[in-house]
User: Fold this.
Amino acid sequence: MDRSLVTELPPPLPAERILAVNPPRNDLRTTRSYTWNGWDFEVPPGVFLPGGTSRMIHQRLLDDDIDVRGRRYAAMGVGLGVEAVAAGARGAGEVHAIDVHAPSVEATARNFDRVLDGGTTTRLVPWVSDMFAGLPDDARFDVVTFNPPAVSHPTSIDPDVVRNVCVGASITATFFTQLRERPLLAPDAEVYLIASNTADLRRVVAHAEGSGFSGEVHHRHDWGDGVLTYLFRFREDERR
Assistant:
């Protein structure tokens, strides 16, 4: 019998440590800018700035470690659109930019057009959707990435902060359930999910496995402050 990935994962950090590494930001209601890889992004009010965890995904898209070339790619929780731009730069066939927050999807579309400025053949498909609920039944993806707001302890009562940071493991349960039951994945599709021990990693992975996915740790990063970030790669388990 195969060993569950859950047994390899640490428990969540204590609440006080989670709060310490997720300090509140006071600029969420302002217009900001963000620069990465020499690209400048516009960040309207209510749209979150990427952190180090997001940049781990962005860099792997740019380096083809997460290979989207010619493939149908879904960026769940796309935010201001850095992964959409990176995927466009690498020649994805389609980028489905999905977020429950309409201003984030709008910002992604603007940033994609402005930063790439016609220098890609990638088709951007924006979706304002609560997870995959708003997508058509015939949607199929070859690659999916998600940096979920799975922090296991509330860090704020601000609904925008909750939406982006601390919904908890329930959001990943919905994510894997919908991927499996719709179904939304093409044969041999890859699902990359990134989360740290500020989340309940064991619960996240247990639900993925219970939904019919086999996973592995694609990358693990120790930030040196007690936070361990895991980039998981999941595939549908065809033995089910």
